[in-house]
UniProtKB/TrEMBL annotation:
Keyword set, alphabetical order: 4Fe-4S, Cell membrane, Iron, Iron-sulfur, Membrane, Metal-binding, NAD, Quinone, Repeat, Translocase, Ubiquinone
Enzyme class, broadest EC rank: translocase
Entry protein name: NADH-quinone oxidoreductase subunit I
Bias kind Pro residues: ranges: 179-195
Xref: PANTHER family: NADH DEHYDROGENASE UBIQUINONE IRON-SULFUR PROTEIN 8, MITOCHONDRIAL, NADH-QUINONE OXIDOREDUCTASE SUBUNIT I 2
Pfam families in alphabetical order: Fer4
Cofactor stoichiometry and binding remark: Binds 2 [4Fe-4S] clusters per subunit.
Residue ranges, compositional bias (Basic and acidic residues): 151-162
Binding residue positions for [4Fe-4S] cluster 2: C60, C98, C101, C104
Amino acid sequence: MKVPGEGLAKGLAVTLKTMVGHSHTQQYPDVEPELPPRSRGVIALAEENCTVCMLCARECPDWCIYIDSHKEEVQVPGAARPRQRNVLDKFDIDFSLCMYCGICIEVCPFDALYWSPEFEYAEYDIRDLLHDKDHLGQWMATVPPPPAHDPNGEPAKEETAAARKATTPPGAAAATTPPVRPPRPAGPPPTSAAP
């Protein structure tokens, strides 16, 4: 037989247990939160690595990266003519538009963009969320180093393939290929017996 109010009593028991239990609230402004070591906060720029390839700006789904550059001629000793290189004039990220997907960091072939664990960059005016290359460069000091190599981990496929290729003598490569099967003799196809 079901007792009236049994469900209500169970719900109130859970509420009472939670009410007298330990609180997990952090006093945020007074106590700094403990973030994971590789947490994603804001995007930092290593300006010296940027070659102005524009991949980050083209791949950004929010179009929040603005880049300007100019070409500069560099005289190389012994070269017949001077070489041209791009010089970064402006690199801005509008964090009021950014959705922190990380596509720009993934597509950067020269490791110019990194995740920084900084997250306190709120502004009173939305126009102040447009950060220039100098401000983005200041966050590089907070970027954690990459994780250490795990000696017990499995090596990458590319490394094992390169090591295998380097240790295999040139004549041994043909010996390791599987033999080719001779073709089947031509004849009528086998028939299956009807049940």
